[in-house]
Amino acid sequence: MDDASHLPAAPMAPTDPKPTAPPAATPGPRAPVLVRRAELADSAAIARIHQASRQATMPYLPPQRRTHEQVTSWVREVTLPQCHTLVATRGPELLGYAAVRGEVLEHLYLRPDVRRHGIGTLLLTAARRLSPGGLTLHVFQLNTAARAFYAHHGFAVIATGDGGDNMENLPELTLRWPPGRTES
After folding, report:
1. For the CA atoms of 66, 5, 51, 109, what is the dihedral angle to 10 degrees?
2. CB-based contact 68:47 (threshold 8 Å)
3. Which of 40, 70, 135, 139 could cross-link 66 (Cys pair, CB 3.0–4.6 Å)?
4. Does the model's pTM come out above 0.85?
């Protein structure tokens, strides 16, 4: 579900660091938020975001067993080569990331301190552009905040699982956004 370390590594995909979305309005005199394709140099920051977000937003998960270096390696060797990975940035800061493989949104994580500022929506909008035929994702049933976020953005439950297919063994939902479905 959230740890694709069981997947074989694939060749490195070329990266395009150009922004893929227009700047988002941000409060105050801060720089605008941009979305661009992730680069290998972003691996450690993406890993930090991944770990911090899971720890802050999913307290029901068991303690993290992987080190920052292991997660960075997973990002560099698995996520970036196998997914079209986008990062939200404000100046030099990485604020969040989304990873899309085909029609599956594999990951969408934000730094805990930037949640509820439109950055997740910005990343989701960019991810939808990568998969105009629709997006599917998996979310833990216990992750009520993520479920509400995705429902607000037009995703609907298409399947349920008992957790046997994820390494956390937690019940999950499969959600789908079909093109043309509007936000609630």
Report:
1. -170
2. yes
3. 70
4. no
